[in-house]
Amino acid sequence: MRPIRWLRKNLVVIAGVLALAYLILPNVVVLVFSFNKPKGRFNYTWDHFSTDAWQHPCGVADMCGSLTLSLKIAVYATIGATILGTLTAFALARYRFRGRAATNMLIFLPMAMPEVVMGASLGTLFLNMRIQFGFWTILIAHIMFCLSFVVTAVKARVMSMDPRLEQAAQDLYATPLQTFLRITLPLAAPGIAAGALLSFALSFDDYIITSFNAGNTVTFPMFVWGSAQRGTPVQVNVIGTAMFAIAVVLVLAGQLAGSRRKAKA
Amino acid sequence: MTTTTAPLADAPPDPAPVPAALKRAARRRRSVPYLLLLAGVAWLLVFFVAPMVYQASTSVQTGSLDTGFKVTWHFATYWNALTEYWPHFVRSLVYSGIATVLCLAIGYPLAYTIAFRAGRWRNLLLILVIAPFFTSFLIRTLAWETILADQSPVVSFLNRVHLLDVTTWLGVTEGHRVMATPLAVVCGLTYNFLPFMILPLYTSLERVDGRLHEAAGDLYATPFTTFRKVTFPLSMPGVVAGTLLTFIPASGDYINAELLGSTNQKMIGNVIQSQFLRVLDYPTAAALSFILMAVILAIVTLYIRKAGTEELV
Question: TM segments (chain A) (predicted)?
Fold first, then answer.
């Protein structure tokens, strides 16, 4: 009866590992097929091993241009959303004022709205204002939907901070500016960083809202979407795998730095 | 926290301050939150609220792209949209509902494992849950086309064990294929929104004190009873947040239906997108997204009230 008891005890872990496999499987497929040399235009069936795509990641017309555009929009959107979101989060976490509940609701709503609805409505507005679709309309839309996520991340962090630390700084004759720069900001930094990271990922990956506000401008997700109809180039898998690898390395490096700092303290 | 935490240095240096100066300082302090809010709230009002209002007006307009659209209070647009596209609405809600339940069933064991059983592997597992986010979700959804293709190992295996006969009997697949069936679309939806379920579940499970499990065990609760009476109720905030974060985006999604489904699996998102970008029938697109928004808000409000969690807002 031993194996059965073991199975019962570890059933949860087995189910968890299977769930993880389900999550990772597509990434494995993307990795494997980045080394494929497909026969036709469609990279769906394995033909033979080749590193061509890795040697010429920009060998496809327009792909790297769209990638650069997406990175540029993601950086600007992150900066914009992080600044606006952090200010809003401080107001909501630190002050009681008339309209606070309404503001909280306003921040929550974009997160509870299907992207199609937000994209279509903003697109309708731009269309009727006769605003030219392109870089700026995409950027405006991205800042709009990233903002709420930054506010939520920063607000949670600021609410959990000990206010006595700032009072102590003031007792020790720190000016408001000094207190803010040397106490408040470093304490809030992890929340701000989390919000910024989330913004970057959301903006870089967004397809639905962008498709309603891009006009003829092609971001990387839009390039992938367009290529899906006529056969996705292998280079798309290269970019996908590289992004996955960079993200994992960055997170691991961050964790390592964090644990070392903790060990020192 | 109250406004009294405002910096002391804001007070005038004068030992006997005149009331006027104090009043001015107080007024300035009261305006601080509004100044902080100004930019962010203005952005949302102009680019989120105004478009919603504008869309409501677009939905009762008539006209064409050439002659221009005018508000004519043409409510028939709603009626026509509903009678023509109600199957898409129903399909969207059913697909995203099933995907949400599946996400909970698949995501809970993983969140539980990470929170209680992972030990020193915890951080690595968390990274593995988040990392797929960084490969564009379109690329990952396209990978499902490879996994579920007719000749793929997965589909061949499902055929060999005759599981596809069962699903075909249930009406979620057709013949011996998975691609272009409801099963493929729901599978894609479940996959795409699974991390949105796992992360809130993990956050609330992580806060559960492990000693409570021991206490339940000491009181002769079986592991299953412990889970049912202690762990699961304590993880309710995560369950509510996770199901909302899965259901809402899934119900408006059209990527999975477009890439993994056929014309018989089109969801309401597909209709809105094509009305807006291809047919250029803006009033219908606006009416459809207005209905979708209303339905979602109604469901979410009912659900939150029923589940009794207001931590979200």
Answer: 12-35, 73-93, 105-127, 133-154, 183-204, 234-254
ipTM (interface pTM): 0.89
H or E element, residue B69: strand B68-71
Taking phi over 0 as left and psi of -120 to 50 as alpha, with beta for the rest, B175 belongs to left
Asked if the Cβ–Cβ distance from A97 to B33 is below 8 Å, we say: yes
Task: Find the residue in B nearest to A83 (Cα).
Answer: B40
- What is the per-residue pLDDT across A176-200, written as a single tens digit (0 to 9) for each? 889 889 999 999 999 999 899 889 9
Identity at A181, one-letter amino acid code: L
CA torsion sign for A125, A127, A129, A134 is positive
Distance CA B134, CA B213 (A): 36
Residue A253 sits at the chain B interface (C-beta within 8 Å): no
Q: What is the dihedral of CA B291, B293, B297, B300, to 10 degrees?
A: 110
Burial (CB count <10 Å: 0-12, 13-18, 19+), residue A90? buried
In which domain, by residue range, is A86 found? Answer: 61-232
Comparing CB atoms, the residue among B37, B138, B151 nearest residue A103 is B37
What tokens appear for A73 in the block?
Answer: 């929009």
CATH number at residue A176: 1.10.3720.10
Radius of gyration over alpha carbons of chain A, in Å? Answer: 23
Give the residue from chain B lying closest to A32, CA to CA.
B143
Domain total in chain B? 1
What element of type H or E holds B68?
strand B68-71
Residue B295 touches chain A, beta carbons under 8 Å: no
Nearest Cα neighbor of A137 from A199, A223, A219 is A219
Contact B100, B88 (CB under 8 A): no
In chain B, what's the furthest Cα-to-Cα distance?
90
d(Cα B254, Cα A208) in Å, to the nearest integer? 8
In a domain, A188, yes or no: yes
Q: Which residues contact A26 (CB under 8 A, 6 or more apart)?
A: B132, B135, B140, B141, B143, B144, B147, B191
CA dihedral B202, B205, B211, B215 (to 10 degrees): -140
pLDDT digits (tens, 9 = 90+) for A135-147: 999 999 999 999 9
| C-alpha distance from residue B3 to each of B30, B55, B269 (Å) | 8, 39, 45
**Torsion of Cα atoms, B290 then B293 then B299 then B302, to 10°:** -90
How many CB pairs below 8 Å do chains A and B form together?
281
Contacts of B140 in chain A (CB under 8 A): 26-27, 30, 240
- Per the structure, how many domains does chain A have? 2
With beta carbons under 8 A apart, name residues in chain A contacting B127. Answer: 248, 251-252, 255
Indicate whether A105 belongs to any domain.
Answer: yes
pLDDT in tens, B242-279: 999 999 999 999 999 999 999 899 999 999 999 998 88
